[in-house]
Design a protein that fits this description.
Number of strands: 7
Bound molecules: adenosine monophosphate
Largest sheet: 5 strands, parallel
Radius of gyration: 17 Å
Order of helices and strands: EHEHHHEHEHEEHEH
Distance between the termini: 11 Å
Structural class: alpha/beta
């Protein structure tokens, strides 16, 4: 099974992708994670994309498309995969079928912009163990300190409020047209990204199994 998840940053694509990946035993491919991995490894490519990502803009198509093409060659993609964060614009969507072949479904997560700003700008993560918190909905016991390992929590640069607003603007301008692209092909499945995580994933699993 090959799935695409579309939705603005913070809509819950990553969380649902993990659940669907486990249930259907298919790989979860996040192009944001592939890029962050390059930054962490301090590769030339990583250096090139750091500032672009911190500002909330899109990385050039050729870079992301090349990373994706290499990733789907790996063994864990034989059974299928979930694309989380790709395609992000019409040109990527048009190119995609030549890389992946037929896509089974495109899931669109719908969430209001104000809810996203609150959700993302409140996010904090532990730089050491990776544990995630939210200052309002899932705060650590001690302000700014990781419950798991005691490290000082940080806010990812691209989760800062101004960057989130910019990422939403970029999303509406460049990603929304791909929704119509897949709708016209009859592949679109819309789901609300607001609500309990397990309810959303149960709905998606049931609907995808029946499709
Ligand atoms: P994400 O983790 O999916 O929110 O992605 C984080 C950042 O990575 C985005 O704000 C972009 O700068 C970059 N990025 C991820 N996927 C793509 C893509 N398909 N095309 C261009 N840039 C991307």
């Amino acid at each position: 099974m090959k799935l695409i998840l579309i939705g603005c940053p913070g809509a819950g694509k990553g969380t649902q992708a993990k659940k669907l990946s486990k249930h259907f035993d298919i790989a979860h491919i996040s192009t944001g994670d592939l890029l962050r991995e390059q930054i962490q490894l301090k590769t030339e490519l990583g250096k090139k994309v750091t500032n672009i990502m911190n500002s909330g803009h899109l990385v050039p198509n050729e870079i992301v498309t090349q990373l994706l093409s290499q990733r789907i060659e790996r063994e864990d993609c034989k059974n299928g995969y979930i694309l989380d964060g790709y395609p992000r614009n019409l040109s990527q969507a048009e190119k995609l079928s030549s890389i992946t072949g037929e896509i089974d479904k495109v899931v669109l997560f719908e969430v209001d912009d104000n809810a996203i700003i609150e959700r993302m700008s409140g996010r904090r993560s532990c730089p050491k163990c990776g544990h995630m918190y939210h200052i309002k909905y899932n705060p650590p016991v001690t302000f700014d300190i990781c419950d798991e390992c005691g490290s000082k929590l940080i806010q990812r640069k691209d989760d800062a409020e101004e960057t989130v607003k910019n990422r939403l603007k970029v999303y509406h301008e460049t990603t929304s047209p791909i929704v119509s692209f897949y709708d016209e092909k009859g592949l679109l499945l819309k789901v609300s990204g607001v609500g309990a995580i397990d309810e959303i994933s149960s709905y998606l699993i049931k609907t995808l199994e029946e499709a």
